[in-house]
Amino acid sequence: MTAKLSVLFVCLGNICRSPLAEAAFRHEAGRTALDVEIDSAGTGHWHIGEPPDRRARAVALRHGIDIGAYRARQVRQEDFRRFSHIVALDPQNLADLHVLKPKGAAGAISLLLDHVPGREGQAVADPYYGGAEEFEVTWADVTLGAQALARLLAARK
Ligand code: 4NP
């Protein structure tokens, strides 16, 4: 049996990096006809119900993608059973996910840039205290990660 592919991207607030990773991966999955369910969430609760940060919406729009309808949510215990792949944006998110993970949950937990040769172990840097330039770096990083992850998952099927 092959479980349905499903990917959850996780950062701290779910208003900057993980919505951008979700958008980049949705685009890549669509482009490569990869059948996968996609969502994002934050380890923190501060922004639950909010749309992505305006700078995140702006960088996505500059790259042709409207993420204005996304809403932030927090990671839930059921996510560890529901998603086949949970992908952290930075090493702290990864450590937090390992703490939150219920015993026996089977989903694979990984760091996004671990899938990009030469970028293993690296964070997608938090752009929250930056400006448009930092958000462009975030977009470039999540795009690289999304492409690598889509290739990996396509090869697995
Ligand atoms: P994100 O960015 O984790 O990429 O969504 C942040 C958003 C909000 C905060 C920190 C990071 N905050 O401290 O509120």
Protein architecture, described:
The chain contains 5 helices and 4 strands. The chain has one domain (6-156): Response regulator (Rossmann fold, 3-Layer(aba) Sandwich), CATH 3.40.50. By secondary structure, it is an alpha/beta fold. The radius of gyration is 14 Å and the shape is globular. The termini are close together. α4 links the parallel β3 (85-88) and β4. α1 packs across α5 and α2 (54-62) crosses α5. Residues 11-17, 42, 46, 126, 128 line the site of 4-nitrophenyl phosphate. 4-nitrophenyl phosphate binds at residues 11-17, 42, 46, 126, 128.
Task: Summarize the structure in short.
This protein has helices spanning 17-31, 54-62, 79-82, 91-100, 132-156, and strands at 6-11, 37-42, 85-88, 108-111.
Question: How is the secondary structure organized here?
Answer:
Blueprint: E1 6-11, H1 17-31, E2 37-42, H2 54-62, H3 79-82, E3 85-88, H4 91-100, E4 108-111, H5 132-156
Parallel strand pairs: 1-2, 1-3, 3-4
Helix pairs in contact: 1-5, 2-5
The protein binds 4-nitrophenyl phosphate.
Structural class: alpha/beta
N-C termini distance: 11 Å
Which ranges are low-confidence, i.e. pLDDT below 50, for 5 or more consecutive residues? Answer: none
State the CATH class. Alpha Beta
**Are any ligands bound, and if so which?**
4-nitrophenyl phosphate
H-E string: EHEHHEHEH
